[in-house]
Amino acid sequence: PVLYVGGGVLKARATAELKVLAELTGAPVVTTLMALGAFPDSHPQHLGMPGMHGTVAAVTALQKADLIVALGARFDDRVTGKLDSFAPFAKVVHADIDPAEIGKNREADVPIVGDAREVIADLVVAVQAEQAAGNTGDHSEWWQQLNRWRETYPLGYDLPEDGSLSPQQVIERIGQLAPEDTIYAAGVGQHQMWAAHFIQYDQPATWLNSGGLGTMGYAVPAALGAKAGAPDRTVWAVDGDGCFQMTNQELVTAALNNIPIKVAIINNGALGMVRQWQTLFYNQRYSNTVLHSGPDAEPAETPPQGTRCPDFVKLAEAMGCVGIRCEDPADLDAVIEKANAINDRPVVVDFIVHEDAMVWPMVAAGTSNDEVMAARGVRPDFGDSDD
User: Fold this and answer.
1) Could you say which DSSP state residue 302 is in?
2) N or C: which end of the chain has fewer CB within 10 A?
3) Which CATH code fits 167-352?
4) Across residues 175-199, what is the average pLDDT?
5) How far apart are CA 262 and CA 239, in angstroms?
6) What is the dihedral of CA 221, 42, 179, 13, to 10 degrees?
7) What is the CATH code of the structural domain delimited by 2-152?
8) Is 299 exposed, middle or buried (0-12, 13-18, 19+ CB in 10 A)?
9) Per-residue pLDDT tens over the stretch 145-178
10) Comparing C-alpha atoms, which of 70, 103, 82 is closest to residue 3?
């Protein structure tokens, strides 16, 4: 079995009930991009995020499961991959408050229409009754398999050989150095996936994300709203240099209204996710993804080579914010700590990161989750015995 948890659990404020159900059943839990924080990332039963860029363990747990209990989740294409090959062995219990979601993408063997909090509470009572009658499940072999996948294919990243900043490390250190109750808002693209993977979400109301519509430019205005609503909490907007240029003018609003958010620009000089696809699927034919005039930019004459346009530090300062640039890994922690310590003005940190970093794991669009790649050129072995 797998508990497949979607954003509906957060909307129903059912995280406490979910934890009770998970620990009662002993079942593994996967939380979608919209549900980060619904179940603690640090909990031993949590396998991570499923889907196109989910963890190998989470993707494969759903794929190999004999029972999926979907709570406030949509079975969207980013989670299922090629729909007709998704979870071929699983019976499905699908609970959602919106009847239109039930059976829309995957037929439910047990459909339940209801508020997630009430449904989970009822499931807890039902499981307790079964256990009191002596009906307990043995998931030990399942967990042995899951733990093999989790240990063999963990999340990770390589540091750039040229000594430049790793975007994953930048985001990971932001998460490690910020206060425990920090709220994170992400834009859309590579930085969004890295923020989902490398920041630990152990409580609800710590992650804001446009995971349905995928709206670039979401991070800064979402962070403003979060800081206005929770002024005593630290709020980081994790943005890409592409997303940031869509809504950065709202920093004027932040400065004039004393909303001291912190913005991390993961600046790889490109529309990174599109560039990743161009690298992997289009023979490195890069079209309209370069956002500065570095060595590979076109045209080469305007502005001069090596110029970053705009200069995000000067732009931030022009809008009444503190602007900081970080290029050296040796300065990373000090820069993040400096940003965390500034609370009288918005802070924008321009992290100049390696341009070739990619998001892994990955299930290519239109393919089965069975074809998940742990890293470039690394396809997991899912034999039935010695995975």
Assistant:
1) S
2) C
3) 3.40.50.970
4) 98
5) 11
6) 50
7) 3.40.50.1220
8) exposed
9) 999 999 999 999 999 999 999 999 999 999 999 9
10) 70
